[in-house]
Structure formats: C-alpha cells, structure tokens
Design a protein that fits this description.
Layout (H helix, E strand, L loop, with lengths): L11 E5 L4 H16 L3 H14 L3 E3 L2 E2 L2 E4 L6 E11 L9 E10 L3 H15 L2 H9 L3 H9 L5 H7 L1
Parallel strand pairs: 1-5, 3-6, 4-6
Antiparallel strand pairs: 2-3, 5-6
Length: about 160
C-alpha cells in the first residue's frame, strides 16, 4: 500500500490552526467529512472513541488518529501540519504538530492495519518529519509524503 493510495493534494492541510487535541480532532473531522462524504459528527465521534482507548499521539510530535466508519467504500487519509504544536497526551508527553488521520471502512481489518503500518513506517524517521515541518506548501508536503520511502541512512546522506 502506498501513501498516495490514501491521500491527495486536497487532503493535505499545511497550517492547521488549533489550540487543543479536541479542536484538532474537530477540525480534522470537518475536513474528512468533505473528502469522504461522511457526517462530520460521526467522524468526530469515531475519533474521540478511539482516543478514549488510548492516545494516538505516538511520540516525536506525531499523532495518527484513526477509526472505522460503516459507510466508507475505501480507506481515506488526511495529513495536517499544525501551525503550533498542541498537547495530545502523547506517549512521550511531547506536543504534536504532525497529524495523519486515517479512516477505514468498518470491515477493513487487515487493510486498515496495513495502512497504519505504512504510515508509521513513513513517519518514524525524525529527519523525514523535519522535512515535512520545513515544506513550504501543501504540494510540497504531498510530494514528500507520496515519494518512495527512503531509509534513514539515505535521508542522512541527502541532508
């Protein structure tokens, strides 16, 4: 599975203005509603329910909120770079400024997990996240996200 199977240029938000975890999820639900055609409140409720199970703030300024919705036909992704980091109850207690939202159909079991693994692999390198933080606009962010994954060593050599 490729990241470009999950997102488009339109599903990249380069400077989302939010001040809290809840507001981040609300704003992302609004955007996701437009992209997926799903009810904004249902998207928000699914994300909030998942957060109650445990934070999706995975550390290093990154969160991967996700959930399953009954009426989706495929998996959708949405990437946001926050204008200012917010407290996300992350596992490392650091604020979050990069968020990759993932929404999957209710019965998507293995595909949902594969998508989460793909996102995690792509975003686990701190040098890659620094490139995302430094990108100028949504097109540049999308280009970075949709490029072939590189190893950390290749990224270091290119820096």
């Amino acid at each position: 599975m490729e990241i470009s199977d999950l997102i488009t240029v339109e599903s990249v938000i380069p400077d989302l203005r939010v001040t809290s975890k809840k507001q981040t999820l609300q704003e992302l639900s609004k955007y996701a509603s437009k992209i997926t055609g799903q009810n904004e409140r249902e998207v928000f409720d699914v994300l909030l329910e998942r957060e109650r199970l445990g934070t999706t703030g995975v550390g290093d300024g990154l969160a991967i909120p996700h959930g399953r919705l009954p009426n989706l036909k495929r998996i959708y992704g949405l990437f946001a770079r926050l204008e200012k980091p917010v407290d996300f109850d992350s596992i490392d207690d650091c604020p979050v400024d990069l968020v990759f939202l993932l929404l999957a159909p209710e019965g998507s079991g293995a595909d949902h997990l594969k998508a989460l693994a793909t996102i995690s692999r792509l975003l686990r390198g701190s040098s890659f996240c620094q490139k995302l933080r430094g990108a100028n606009n949504r097109e540049a962010i999308f280009a970075l996200l949709s490029q072939e994954p590189e190893t950390d060593q290749a990224l270091k050599a290119a820096s």
